Amino acid sequence: MSESAAPLAVVTGASTGIGRALAQQFVDHGFDLVICADEPEIVQVGQELARSGRLVTAEQVDLSEPDSVTALVSTIEATGRPVAAAALNVGIGANGRFHETDLEGDLRVVDVNVRSTVHLAKLLVRDMAARGDGKLLFTASIAAMAPGPYYATYAASKAFVHSFAGAIRFELKGTGVTVTSLMPGPTDTAFFARNDMEDTMVAAMPKDDPADVARDGFEAMMAGRAKVAGGSVLNKVQAFGSRAVPDQVKAALQSLLTKPGSGSR
User: Fold this and answer.
1) Which among 72, 117, 217, 263 is placed 20 to 30 Å from 90, CA to CA?
2) Catalytic residue among 26, 31, 150, 154
Protein backbone atom coordinates (compact mmCIF):
# COMPACT_ATOMS: atom_id res chain seq x y z
CA MET A 1 0.00 0.00 0.00
CA SER A 2 1.28 3.48 -0.83
CA GLU A 3 2.17 6.00 1.84
CA SER A 4 -0.75 8.05 3.13
CA ALA A 5 -1.30 10.56 5.88
CA ALA A 6 -4.87 9.34 6.39
CA PRO A 7 -5.75 7.19 9.42
CA LEU A 8 -6.19 3.46 8.76
CA ALA A 9 -9.33 1.51 9.67
CA VAL A 10 -10.26 -2.18 9.49
CA VAL A 11 -13.78 -3.49 8.80
CA THR A 12 -14.72 -7.18 8.85
CA GLY A 13 -17.82 -8.55 7.12
CA ALA A 14 -17.69 -5.57 4.78
CA SER A 15 -19.14 -7.04 1.58
CA THR A 16 -22.80 -6.19 2.29
CA GLY A 17 -25.18 -4.80 4.89
CA ILE A 18 -23.97 -2.99 8.00
CA GLY A 19 -20.33 -3.85 7.30
CA ARG A 20 -20.48 -2.36 3.81
CA ALA A 21 -22.15 0.75 5.21
CA LEU A 22 -19.54 1.04 7.97
CA ALA A 23 -16.79 0.88 5.37
CA GLN A 24 -18.53 3.72 3.53
CA GLN A 25 -18.65 5.77 6.72
CA PHE A 26 -14.92 5.37 7.16
CA VAL A 27 -13.98 6.45 3.62
CA ASP A 28 -16.45 9.34 3.79
CA HIS A 29 -14.62 10.54 6.90
CA GLY A 30 -11.16 10.34 5.40
CA PHE A 31 -9.94 6.89 6.46
CA ASP A 32 -7.97 4.44 4.37
CA LEU A 33 -9.21 0.86 4.77
CA VAL A 34 -8.42 -2.80 5.06
CA ILE A 35 -11.70 -4.68 4.57
CA CYS A 36 -12.55 -8.35 4.45
CA ALA A 37 -15.36 -10.84 3.95
CA ASP A 38 -15.64 -14.50 3.00
CA GLU A 39 -17.30 -13.65 -0.33
CA PRO A 40 -15.60 -12.77 -3.62
CA GLU A 41 -17.77 -9.64 -3.85
CA ILE A 42 -15.45 -8.00 -1.33
CA VAL A 43 -12.99 -7.28 -4.15
CA GLN A 44 -15.61 -5.27 -6.06
CA VAL A 45 -16.57 -3.45 -2.85
CA GLY A 46 -12.93 -2.48 -2.40
CA GLN A 47 -12.82 -1.09 -5.92
CA GLU A 48 -16.01 0.91 -5.33
CA LEU A 49 -14.68 2.39 -2.10
CA ALA A 50 -11.34 3.25 -3.69
CA ARG A 51 -13.12 5.55 -6.14
CA SER A 52 -13.39 7.98 -3.23
CA GLY A 53 -9.63 8.49 -3.50
CA ARG A 54 -8.92 6.56 -0.32
CA LEU A 55 -6.50 3.63 -0.24
CA VAL A 56 -8.44 0.38 0.17
CA THR A 57 -7.16 -3.17 0.54
CA ALA A 58 -9.83 -5.87 0.18
CA GLU A 59 -9.23 -9.46 1.31
CA GLN A 60 -11.46 -12.50 0.83
CA VAL A 61 -10.92 -14.49 4.03
CA ASP A 62 -12.99 -16.93 6.06
CA LEU A 63 -12.56 -15.76 9.65
CA SER A 64 -13.94 -19.03 11.00
CA GLU A 65 -10.39 -20.32 10.40
CA PRO A 66 -7.72 -19.12 12.87
CA ASP A 67 -5.11 -19.04 10.11
CA SER A 68 -7.30 -16.59 8.20
CA VAL A 69 -7.36 -14.20 11.15
CA THR A 70 -3.58 -14.37 11.29
CA ALA A 71 -3.38 -13.79 7.52
CA LEU A 72 -5.64 -10.73 7.81
CA VAL A 73 -3.41 -9.27 10.52
CA SER A 74 -0.38 -9.89 8.29
CA THR A 75 -2.12 -7.90 5.54
CA ILE A 76 -2.76 -5.07 8.00
CA GLU A 77 0.83 -5.12 9.23
CA ALA A 78 2.10 -5.06 5.64
CA THR A 79 0.69 -1.54 5.30
CA GLY A 80 3.31 -0.43 7.83
CA ARG A 81 0.69 1.75 9.49
CA PRO A 82 -1.06 1.69 12.85
CA VAL A 83 -4.76 0.84 12.99
CA ALA A 84 -6.61 3.92 14.19
CA ALA A 85 -10.03 2.22 14.29
CA ALA A 86 -11.49 -1.23 13.75
CA ALA A 87 -15.10 -2.30 13.25
CA LEU A 88 -15.34 -6.00 14.12
CA ASN A 89 -18.63 -6.57 12.39
CA VAL A 90 -18.59 -10.05 10.86
CA GLY A 91 -21.43 -12.30 12.05
CA ILE A 92 -23.53 -15.28 10.97
CA GLY A 93 -26.50 -17.19 12.40
CA ALA A 94 -28.15 -20.62 12.43
CA ASN A 95 -31.93 -20.88 12.55
CA GLY A 96 -33.99 -23.70 14.02
CA ARG A 97 -34.43 -25.79 17.17
CA PHE A 98 -31.02 -26.42 18.69
CA HIS A 99 -31.52 -30.19 18.93
CA GLU A 100 -32.37 -30.29 15.24
CA THR A 101 -29.84 -27.88 13.74
CA ASP A 102 -26.55 -29.06 12.28
CA LEU A 103 -23.69 -29.18 14.80
CA GLU A 104 -21.19 -27.91 12.27
CA GLY A 105 -23.39 -24.89 11.57
CA ASP A 106 -23.75 -23.98 15.24
CA LEU A 107 -20.02 -24.35 15.85
CA ARG A 108 -19.33 -22.14 12.84
CA VAL A 109 -21.50 -19.43 14.42
CA VAL A 110 -19.32 -19.62 17.53
CA ASP A 111 -16.11 -19.63 15.47
CA VAL A 112 -17.08 -16.59 13.40
CA ASN A 113 -18.98 -14.49 15.92
CA VAL A 114 -17.01 -15.26 19.08
CA ARG A 115 -13.64 -16.85 18.46
CA SER A 116 -12.58 -14.72 15.49
CA THR A 117 -13.75 -11.58 17.28
CA VAL A 118 -11.62 -12.37 20.33
CA HIS A 119 -8.67 -13.43 18.18
CA LEU A 120 -8.64 -10.30 16.01
CA ALA A 121 -9.36 -7.96 18.91
CA LYS A 122 -6.47 -9.46 20.88
CA LEU A 123 -4.02 -8.84 18.05
CA LEU A 124 -5.25 -5.31 17.32
CA VAL A 125 -5.75 -3.97 20.82
CA ARG A 126 -2.27 -4.78 22.05
CA ASP A 127 -0.76 -2.35 19.57
CA MET A 128 -3.46 0.25 20.23
CA ALA A 129 -2.84 0.12 23.98
CA ALA A 130 0.93 0.30 23.49
CA ARG A 131 0.49 3.42 21.32
CA GLY A 132 -2.10 4.92 23.66
CA ASP A 133 -4.62 5.46 20.87
CA GLY A 134 -7.33 3.55 19.04
CA LYS A 135 -11.04 2.92 18.64
CA LEU A 136 -12.85 -0.43 18.51
CA LEU A 137 -16.45 -0.97 17.40
CA PHE A 138 -18.03 -4.37 17.98
CA THR A 139 -21.28 -5.21 16.19
CA ALA A 140 -23.38 -6.99 18.79
CA SER A 141 -27.19 -7.01 18.41
CA ILE A 142 -30.41 -6.25 20.20
CA ALA A 143 -30.56 -10.07 20.33
CA ALA A 144 -27.87 -9.82 23.02
CA MET A 145 -30.46 -8.54 25.48
CA ALA A 146 -32.57 -11.72 25.66
CA PRO A 147 -32.39 -15.48 25.15
CA GLY A 148 -32.96 -16.21 21.47
CA PRO A 149 -35.05 -19.29 20.79
CA TYR A 150 -34.63 -20.71 17.27
CA TYR A 151 -31.31 -18.92 16.80
CA ALA A 152 -29.86 -19.77 20.17
CA THR A 153 -26.19 -19.78 19.21
CA TYR A 154 -26.51 -16.46 17.36
CA ALA A 155 -28.21 -14.65 20.24
CA ALA A 156 -25.77 -16.12 22.76
CA SER A 157 -22.80 -15.16 20.59
CA LYS A 158 -24.00 -11.57 20.41
CA ALA A 159 -24.52 -11.50 24.18
CA PHE A 160 -20.88 -12.58 24.43
CA VAL A 161 -19.75 -9.82 22.06
CA HIS A 162 -21.69 -7.15 23.98
CA SER A 163 -20.37 -8.33 27.35
CA PHE A 164 -16.84 -8.71 26.00
CA ALA A 165 -16.87 -5.16 24.62
CA GLY A 166 -18.01 -3.75 27.95
CA ALA A 167 -15.41 -5.69 29.89
CA ILE A 168 -12.39 -4.72 27.82
CA ARG A 169 -13.66 -1.13 27.67
CA PHE A 170 -13.36 -1.07 31.47
CA GLU A 171 -9.90 -2.64 31.37
CA LEU A 172 -8.70 -0.09 28.80
CA LYS A 173 -9.63 2.98 30.85
CA GLY A 174 -6.79 5.44 30.80
CA THR A 175 -5.00 3.82 27.84
CA GLY A 176 -6.40 6.08 25.13
CA VAL A 177 -8.31 3.16 23.59
CA THR A 178 -12.11 3.24 23.50
CA VAL A 179 -14.53 0.36 22.89
CA THR A 180 -18.11 0.70 21.63
CA SER A 181 -20.82 -1.95 21.28
CA LEU A 182 -23.24 -1.45 18.38
CA MET A 183 -26.63 -3.10 18.93
CA PRO A 184 -28.69 -3.16 15.74
CA GLY A 185 -32.24 -4.40 15.59
CA PRO A 186 -33.79 -6.00 12.47
CA THR A 187 -31.91 -4.41 9.58
CA ASP A 188 -32.46 -4.63 5.84
CA THR A 189 -29.53 -6.91 5.00
CA ALA A 190 -28.93 -10.38 3.56
CA PHE A 191 -28.79 -11.85 7.10
CA PHE A 192 -32.24 -13.45 6.96
CA ALA A 193 -31.73 -15.05 3.56
CA ARG A 194 -28.26 -16.33 4.41
CA ASN A 195 -29.41 -17.90 7.66
CA ASP A 196 -32.66 -19.53 6.46
CA MET A 197 -34.86 -17.07 8.35
CA GLU A 198 -36.91 -15.68 5.48
CA ASP A 199 -40.05 -17.45 6.73
CA THR A 200 -39.88 -15.86 10.20
CA MET A 201 -41.93 -12.98 11.51
CA VAL A 202 -38.80 -10.93 12.22
CA ALA A 203 -37.84 -11.22 8.55
CA ALA A 204 -41.26 -9.88 7.54
CA MET A 205 -41.11 -6.89 9.90
CA PRO A 206 -40.10 -3.37 8.86
CA LYS A 207 -36.33 -3.06 9.04
CA ASP A 208 -33.78 -0.33 9.58
CA ASP A 209 -31.59 0.96 6.79
CA PRO A 210 -28.04 -0.38 7.26
CA ALA A 211 -26.70 3.08 6.35
CA ASP A 212 -28.55 4.56 9.35
CA VAL A 213 -27.28 1.82 11.67
CA ALA A 214 -23.72 2.27 10.44
CA ARG A 215 -23.88 6.04 10.86
CA ASP A 216 -25.07 5.66 14.45
CA GLY A 217 -22.34 3.13 15.15
CA PHE A 218 -19.60 5.22 13.56
CA GLU A 219 -20.63 8.37 15.39
CA ALA A 220 -20.80 6.54 18.74
CA MET A 221 -17.37 4.99 18.16
CA MET A 222 -15.79 8.32 17.25
CA ALA A 223 -17.34 9.90 20.35
CA GLY A 224 -15.98 7.07 22.51
CA ARG A 225 -19.40 5.99 23.74
CA ALA A 226 -19.83 2.61 25.45
CA LYS A 227 -22.82 1.43 23.41
CA VAL A 228 -25.41 2.47 20.90
CA ALA A 229 -28.65 0.91 19.70
CA GLY A 230 -28.36 1.71 16.01
CA GLY A 231 -31.29 2.53 13.78
CA SER A 232 -34.86 3.35 14.77
CA VAL A 233 -36.20 4.79 17.99
CA LEU A 234 -38.12 1.53 18.49
CA ASN A 235 -34.87 -0.41 18.50
CA LYS A 236 -33.39 1.96 21.08
CA VAL A 237 -36.43 1.45 23.33
CA GLN A 238 -36.26 -2.34 22.93
CA ALA A 239 -32.52 -2.45 23.57
CA PHE A 240 -32.55 -0.56 26.83
CA GLY A 241 -36.14 -0.88 28.02
CA SER A 242 -36.38 -4.61 28.75
CA ARG A 243 -34.02 -4.89 31.71
CA ALA A 244 -36.79 -5.51 34.24
CA VAL A 245 -38.45 -8.23 32.15
CA PRO A 246 -37.65 -11.83 33.25
CA ASP A 247 -35.53 -13.80 30.80
CA GLN A 248 -38.18 -16.47 30.21
CA VAL A 249 -40.72 -13.80 29.31
CA LYS A 250 -38.25 -12.21 26.92
CA ALA A 251 -37.51 -15.64 25.44
CA ALA A 252 -41.20 -16.28 24.85
CA LEU A 253 -41.65 -12.91 23.16
CA GLN A 254 -38.54 -13.40 21.06
CA SER A 255 -39.72 -16.84 19.94
CA LEU A 256 -42.80 -15.29 18.33
CA LEU A 257 -40.47 -13.48 15.95
CA THR A 258 -37.85 -16.11 15.27
CA LYS A 259 -39.76 -19.41 15.12
CA PRO A 260 -39.48 -21.00 11.65
CA GLY A 261 -42.71 -20.45 9.73
CA SER A 262 -43.91 -17.62 11.97
CA GLY A 263 -43.79 -15.15 9.09
CA SER A 264 -46.41 -17.03 7.08
CA ARG A 265 -49.13 -16.87 9.71
Assistant:
1) 263
2) 154
Burial 31-69 (b: 16+ CB within 10 A, else e): bbbbbbbbbeebeebbeebbeeebbbbbbebbbbeeebb
Which helix (DSSP H) or strand (DSSP E) does residue 121 occupy? helix 116-131
The gap between the terminal CA atoms of the chain, to the nearest Å, is 53
Contact 27, 7 (CB under 8 A): no
pLDDT per residue over 206-258, tens digit each?
A: 999 999 999 999 999 999 999 999 766 666 666 666 667 888 998 998 899 99
Taking the C-alpha atoms of residue 121 and residue 199, their distance in angstroms, rounded to an integer, is 34
Residue 151 among the catalytic residues: no
The 10s digit of each residue's pLDDT in 182-217 is 999 999 999 999 999 999 999 999 999 999 999 999
Give, for 139, the enclosing helix (H) or strand (E): strand 134-139
Q: What is the DSSP letter of 151?
A: S
